[in-house]
Specification:
Distance between the termini: 79 Å
Strand order of the largest sheet: 6-7-5-8-9-10
Helix content: 40-55%
Shape: rod-shaped
Structural class: alpha/beta
Number of helices: 12
Number of strands: 10
Strand content: 15-25%
Order of helices and strands: EEEEHHEHEHHEHHEHHHEHEH
Length: 372
């Protein structure tokens, strides 16, 4: 409908045709906008419908009222739907709130940080369970095939070694694994071949031995604190690669893990040990010197990684500032070390390259900064 063919009347929205039809007469139309929509309607003709200006105004008003009424009804209906939806959402939120309160109990008395940390631990533990199932399969395979496995856990103090060991062995058959954490050597052991006291704890067929710190004490801790001579340190560094290659050649599955914690995160963990009565027993005199001797440890770490990694017994570097991700990556490393029966291939066994770092990448990082 071409509006140029009509002229306005004195009433807003009412138009009458400029041309007069010989049979129908002039045509009245209504045109207006409401709620961002435009409406147009033919009201009738002056001759055909005997439509007067007054009649046209009444018809126009009636049409407008009907449109407004429908819009209001639609708006009311939409508002009612929104109210119903809001009520359903509120009902669901209330049910969820009541359910969470029934689980959390008197949570308002807890420190929010402690509560948040505890809930996150639940999610972390659930994420590990699928891999812990795989570790049981691996353990069964080792027993079936009469294979022996040694896992070395190395790293600075408070780097997360102990926590990782606990998560790895959580559901294992304790008849077929041992955790070895040797203290200071006795006077008799000092007179023995250095590696002898470690060999005494080596696994038999079907067994896993996890060393919480290992013979690599001689590469880092002992020379820094003067527990060995420079000559003893150098002999160890020259001989250990051949020793490990012999172990692997004779069928030992050897996995070497280095937990790489940053200086800032180590300090945070030390501070927590100092102030938390449940963790104070972990803090030792050696820990007190760890931050002051950071650079010395970095130098020995760099030398150790560079000289003692090999194709048959490579180091696996695990960034451990995030304990959960570190534990997950360690489990993947262990599981990827052998092709055991019944592997769940739907799980993600790919390395997280932000956490599971190659030796070359770690050495490159250390050449830039001694933060790790």
């Amino acid at each position: 409908m071409n509006l140029n063919e009509f002229e306005r009347t004195n009433y807003s929205g009412l138009y009458i045709s400029k041309e007069t039809h010989p049979e129908f007469g002039r045509k009245y139309i209504v045109r207006f906008q409401h709620d961002k929509k435009r409406y147009v309607k033919v009201l009738g003709y002056t001759k055909k419908d005997n439509l007067t200006r007054k009649d046209a105004i009444e018809l126009m008003q009636s049409f407008k009222d009907s449109i407004i009424s429908k819009t209001e009804e639609k708006t009311t209906l939409e508002e009612e739907k929104l109210v119903t939806k809001d009520n359903e959402v509120l009902k669901k939120l209330k049910e969820e709130n009541d359910f969470l309160k029934s689980i959390l109990g008197n949570y308002e008395k807890l420190n929010p940080h402690v509560l948040s940390e505890g809930i996150q631990k639940i999610y972390d533990l659930e994420a590990l369970k699928k891999y812990q199932i795989e570790l049981i399969k691996l353990q069964n395979w080792l027993e079936k095939e009469n294979k022996r496995m040694i896992i070395l856990f190395e790293g600075r103090d408070a780097s997360g070694k102990g926590g990782a060991i606990r998560r790895i062995t959580r559901y294992m058959n304790n008849k077929h694994y041992r955790v070895v954490a040797l203290g200071k050597p006795t006077e008799t052991q000092r007179k023995q071949w250095f590696l002898q006291r470690y060999i005494e704890h080596f696994p038999t067929g079907g067994e896993i031995v996890l060393f919480d710190r290992s013979w690599y004490n001689r590469a880092m801790v002992e020379p820094i604190f003067g527990f060995c001579t420079p000559e003893e340190h150098e002999i160890f560094m020259e001989d250990i690669v051949n020793f490990e290659q012999d172990l692997v050649r004779q069928g030992m599955i050897l996995i070497k893990l280095y937990f790489s914690v940053s200086k800032e995160e180590q300090k945070r963990r030390f501070d927590r040990r100092i102030h938390d009565p449940l963790r104070q027993w972990k803090f030792s005199e050696v820990d007190m010197q760890a931050q002051d001797l950071w650079d010395e440890f970095s130098e020995k770490k760099y030398e150790m990684l560079r000289r003692t990694t090999s194709r048959s017994a490579p180091w696996h570097i695990v960034r451990s500032d995030n304990k959960h991700l570190a534990r997950l990556e360690v489990m993947k490393i262990i599981l990827n070390s052998v092709d055991y029966d019944g592997r769940n291939y739907s799980l993600d066994f790919e390395a997280n390259e932000d956490v599971n770092i190659s030796v070359q990448k770690e050495l490159l990082q250390m050449r830039k900064t001694k933060d790790y």
